Amino acid sequence: MLFSWIPTASFLFWNRKRFFVRMRIEAIVADIMTVVLVGGTILLFPEFSLKQTEAANKIKTIKLPPPMVKGKISLEEAIKKRRSERDFQDRALTLRQVSQILWAAQGITEEKGFKRAAPSAGALYPLELYLVVKKVKELEAGVYHYHPANHTLDLTLRGNYQTPLAEACLGQMFIAEASVSLVIAAEYERTTAKYGKRGLRYVHIEMGHVGENICLQVVALGLGTVTIGAFWDEEVFHRLSLPKNYKPLYVLPVGYVK
Ligand SMILES: Cc1cc2nc3c(=O)[nH]c(=O)nc-3n(C[C@H](O)[C@H](O)[C@H](O)COP(=O)(O)O)c2cc1C
Fold first, then answer.
1. I need a surface site. Which of 53, 101, 122, 224 has the fewest CB within 10 A?
2. What range does the domain containing 185 cover?
3. Residue 49: predicted pLDDT
4. How far is CA 166 from CA 24, 98, 214, in A?
5. What whole-number distance in Å separates Cα of residue 74 and Cα of residue 54?
6. What CATH code is carried by the domain that includes residue 223?
7. According to the model, what pLDDT value does residue 58 have?
8. Which residue among 175, 227, 251 has the greatest number of ligand 1 atoms within 8 angstroms of its CB, and so is best to mutate?
9. 187 in Cβ contact with 245 (< 8 Å)
10. Are residues 77 and 168 in the same domain?
11. Could you list the mean pLDDT of each consecutive 10-residue stretch along the chain, which spans 258 residues?
């Protein structure tokens, strides 16, 4: 207000104030547009953010052998035989067995398509599969992420993570004895972006489908498993270095039964 008594100076001062207010509004609008653009991109193309995290984590990629579509026992026998098993032999699995289990869980079953072994609300596929390896003949110990589209595994962590995983599962140490564990995680946003709160229910239903496919495939291969729901979510998340939006929901240790 120092120059307000001079008409020209007062005019200049008023214009400067307007200029700064306009600059602030423009900055806020630019911020909002950035948030909308980045948020929209992540919502519409979740693989975009995913690929960046994965690229940072990936150590190497393993091509899995193609799955078999004929087994040694009937579906009815597998259903009859399935039991929760908690006593595992210290014996290595083969890459072929692991490949078969991953395929039964989330493999592509549509000719030249993208649809998978288990149903998914809106075919949005919110589940991600991790394989924690202690003993598999053709694989080094570590944590692997399964990619259904090309039936491959990406090694994300080296070393035996079965013991840290067992500790995170409220200390259910029989998990550490199994040759591998499958960890199923969900990115809820893929389903809730379309179905809202009801999408939470859909993700959990889908988890059940995948879990049962694993159980039956494991039995058909002459192996055993148990579905584990009791664990500290944050512990599993941190110990396996899962990407930010992934919530672990189910753990299935697999091996030869004693
Ligand atoms: C959602 C869910 C969570 C479970 N969590 C555990 C678990 O943390 N530890 C465990 O030893 N068994 C767990 N079980 C396995 C059950 O104890 C088992 O399925 C039940 O005793 C029936 O036995 P069966 O699977 O042999 O038919 C879980 C099962 C389900 C469906």
1. 122
2. 46-255
3. 45
4. 53, 20, 19
5. 38
6. 3.40.109.10
7. 77
8. 227
9. yes
10. yes
11. 46 55 63 55 48 63 97 98 98 98 98 97 98 97 98 98 98 98 98 98 98 98 98 98 97 98
